Fold:
Amino acid sequence: MRPCIFVAGGGTGGHVFPSLCIALEIRKQTDWDIIFLGTKRGMERELVRDRGFRMVYLVARGWNRHFDWGFFRLLGENLVGFLLGGWYFLRYRPRVFLAMGSYLSLLGGIWARLLRIPIYVHEQNVYPGLANRILARWAKVVFVSAQDTVPYLEGYKTVKVVGNPLREEVMEWKGRKEEALKELMLEPGRRTILVMGGSRGSEVINENFLQALDFLDENATQVIHITGKENFLQVQEKARRLSFPYRVYPFLPCPGMAYAVSDLAICRAGANTVFELFFFGLPSILVPYAEATESHQVYNALWLKKHQPVEIIEEQVLSPNILGEKIRAMLVTERCYSGDAQYLKNAASIIAQEIVRDFWRERRKKIG
Structure:
């Protein structure tokens, strides 16, 4: 019977994409049965299936961390999800549990702890989330994306800095600007601005950028705008009336070509985005999501600012004028390629190797 591993990390692309990177590496190295824990609402439903992995679904929601009548609904749903998770653990009998953060990781992690299944944690954000801080106490190894995360986990078991796993199809576009220009039908010689709001888009970034277009030199700039599904038609209609290249997408499955061709990014500060910007050395204007739990996007933005040109605008003060002025100032900034970013290429492989090696080491101990 093939060993089984449960992977928990759903909801947004920030959890799903790194999870898939690690799962793909484990699949390269083993014939293990890899099963994802997810919900039917999250991005993982389509992304995991498209990569050929199995998924089991839990009924669960994230905690809003303040008490109101909705708390009882959350409590009920998560209790159902917890019991359902127990059924899956007993049915499939996983030998390893990989937690990538979020409430799904916590629900599964409790069962892994009860059943004495080795737990491995990966924290994508610079400031670790509550679920991972709890699971870190039980984990065999806690993998983190940045050295700055280590002090927040002081006193825990083994903490290893490996980087945030990035998709190969994104990283492979580094240094391929001319090819990306052709793929996106953009003009050489213009300064390119990339606008995006994370895996689900950002209405506040979309609206403020559209109102800041007067600050752009139409003869010298062009735009790639990844809007999210909700604002796509509105932005597309506006783009049709513009005299300069303005490419609009609801979602770009491989943003690597957009990073390769751009001179400036305007975006949120989720972990995936921040480490992709770091890998490409792309100057950026970051607008951390104001409602992000424990302000983790602010920590991510501040970390990136220590490594390359970054301007941070708080969502509460964001306006077309402020954004426009920052764009004009940042468009003259050049990329800042860092040799340090190369370690991200191996992050998924390192995590997969350690999990697989530990499993077989423990198995040999039991047999011997």
In short: The CA atoms of residues 133 and 206 lie 34 Å apart. Residues 4-161+343-367 form a domain with the Rossmann fold fold (CATH 3.40.50.2000). The first strand starts at residue 4 and ends at 8. Residues 70-92 form the longest helix (23 residues).
